[in-house]
């Protein structure tokens, strides 16, 4: 049977649908600029006068603050140097300065001729004056005899060393401590071979034999050679001194807390063994002599003060150093030691004495005298200005207050855009 095809679909329109009308806004949007506030950013006449008065005060106060801060800085710098306990590392220096804390060093000094006994009614001031004059004459005669000696060169072969070799603390030190543990520690340390065999130059100021030997340059030359050439290796000696320093902190904790001079200076000497060994063994390349022997022979004790910095003693402000190449090398050794991450933290005395001494050396010998003048200058300035830093902040705060405020800012804003 035949099946007819399906009927075609009805015709439909292909036109797009009518657009939906968009209703207009009830009220057109208005873009308006917000008006300026009632008060103008430009100052009024009265505001200008008030700001002008503040500005004039700031101009007057700023120079005064700078003058006061500069004067305070000079005062602190002077006080830091002048109040330090100054002691030269020499027998002549101890006598000339009339040292009392190290009076044991004077026991073997040359004594004056005997004099007739003075009346009992003589005053104590007259007695002390006589003692002072005898010490001065003794120091003068010692300086004259030393200056007349020829400086020996560095030995090319091992010299004959004195036996026993001068050792630190060769006097009775038992009465200098309050705790038995500290006294026992010093007794054990000074008799121990690991300590004695290293001959630490950093502690030889406490030796009577070493101080008196400075009147004989030949003997002193042998002693310096002996401190630079020990049977115990240098690295082993550094380890030994580090061990003794650690043990001292434990055994003498009470003395360190009370600032006992013997305990504190010994700790500084143990910690500075390495740098003081290098400083003591410095040669003068122009004469093949030890720099320290040159300083001992010089009638001017200023160069000897450089050897006291690790003990926390600054160079006196009235000193007149010779600005020698030896002193320059010493300052270079000190700066390198302070920059050493292992050695530097323990050099507490050198940290205190180096900045003002370096600043004074730069003033007297020129900036080229120091290995890195910029670093030394910043360190010295930081040390001297540590006190008035709050004053500087306060002064800046006053200036900011004088120039602040709405009127002051309104005056400055138009000027900044002009």
From TrEMBL:
Keyword Transmembrane helix found: yes
Amino acid composition bias (Pro residues), ranges on this chain: 155-165
Domain DUF7729: start-end pairs: 164-371
Segments for region (Disordered): 1-27, 101-165
Keyword list, A-Z: Membrane, Transmembrane, Transmembrane helix
Residues that span the membrane, as ranges: 57-75
Name this polypeptide is given: DUF7729 domain-containing protein
Organism: Psilocybe cubensis
């Amino acid at each position: 049977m035949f099946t007819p095809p399906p009927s075609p679909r009805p015709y439909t329109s292909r036109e797009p649908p009518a657009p939906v009308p968009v209703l207009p806004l009830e009220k057109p949007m208005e873009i308006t600029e917000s008006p300026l506030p009632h008060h103008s950013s430009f100052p009024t006449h009265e505001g200008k006068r008030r700001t002008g008065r503040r500005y004039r005060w700031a101009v007057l106060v700023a120079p005064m603050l700078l003058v006061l801060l500069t004067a305070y800085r000079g005062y602190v710098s002077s006080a830091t140097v002048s109040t330090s306990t100054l002691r030269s590392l020499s027998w002549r220096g101890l006598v000339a300065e009339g040292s009392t804390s190290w009076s044991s060093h004077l026991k073997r000094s040359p004594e004056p001729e005997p004099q007739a006994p003075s009346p009992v009614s003589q005053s104590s001031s007259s007695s002390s004056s006589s003692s002072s004059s005898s010490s001065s004459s003794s120091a003068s005669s010692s300086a004259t005899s030393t200056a007349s000696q020829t400086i020996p060169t560095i030995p090319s072969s091992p010299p004959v060393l004195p036996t026993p070799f001068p050792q630190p603390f060769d006097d009775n030190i038992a009465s200098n401590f309050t705790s038995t543990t500290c006294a026992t520690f010093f007794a054990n340390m000074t008799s121990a071979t690991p300590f004695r065999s290293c001959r630490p130059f950093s502690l030889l100021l406490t030796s009577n034999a070493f101080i008196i030997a400075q009147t004989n340059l030949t003997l002193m030359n042998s002693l310096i050679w002996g401190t630079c050439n020990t049977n115990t290796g240098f690295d082993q000696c550094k380890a030994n001194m580090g061990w003794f320093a650690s043990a001292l902190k434990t055994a003498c904790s009470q003395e360190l807390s009370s600032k006992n001079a013997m305990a504190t200076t010994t700790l500084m000497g143990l910690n500075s063994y390495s740098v003081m060994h290098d400083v003591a063994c410095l040669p003068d390349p122009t004469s093949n002599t030890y720099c320290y022997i040159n300083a001992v022979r010089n009638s001017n004790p200023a160069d000897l003060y450089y050897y006291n910095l690790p003990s926390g003693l600054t160079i006196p402000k009235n000193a007149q150093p010779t600005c020698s190449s030896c002193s320059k090398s010493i300052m270079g050794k000190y700066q390198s030691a302070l920059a050493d991450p292992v050695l530097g933290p323990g050099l507490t005395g050198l940290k205190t004495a180096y900045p003002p001494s370096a600043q004074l050396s730069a003033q007297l010998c020129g900036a080229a005298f120091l290995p890195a003048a910029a670093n030394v200058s910043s360190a010295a300035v930081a040390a001297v200005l540590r006190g008035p830093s709050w004053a500087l902040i306060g002064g800046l705060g006053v200036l900011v207050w004088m120039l602040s405020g709405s009127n002051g800012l309104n005056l400055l804003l138009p000027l900044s855009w002009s």
